[in-house]
Structure prediction request, 160 residues.
Amino acid sequence: MAVRNLRELSRILKKVTERLLANQTLCKLVYYNDQDPISKADFVSTSNLLGKEIRFIPKVGPQENTKSKVVLVWSEGEKNPTNSDIVDLSLKVYVYTPFSEWIILGDELRVFYIMAEIEETLDGKEVNGLGRLKSSGFYLDIITDELAAYRMEFTIDVFS
Prediction:
């Protein structure tokens, strides 16, 4: 299956976001900004994190630099030259983490723990009958005086 209509990308991105919201550890890491976020009780519902800590709307402004954010963005969609289906898709996941939140208890740094949870949640997983997400690495994207943003990249191996 391939993407025939760009509107399908909305539904697919929402499904990927739902998969991330189902990861309790990831949600605790981005929601709680203390040094021991993992010890907090599981969320009864993570829906209040949608659009705030985990989102598919890419804007992150200066007033939001006080908490970690995970932002999903489609970055490319290449059409098959022999038909109009989109067969090569690229998903970028941005992880914004203020420097004041990097340190958590234990040997982990919050930003890398978040990235590990995202990779474990998404890499190799099927997306909406379309294909499997495949991690292609991470990159330091932004450094300011307050935060760093890493970019994780995933491609979708579209089933034929």
Remarks:
- Helices lie at 8-21, 24-31, 110-122.
- The CA atoms of residues 84 and 99 lie 45 Å apart.
- The chain has one domain: 8-158.
- The radius of gyration is 16 Å.
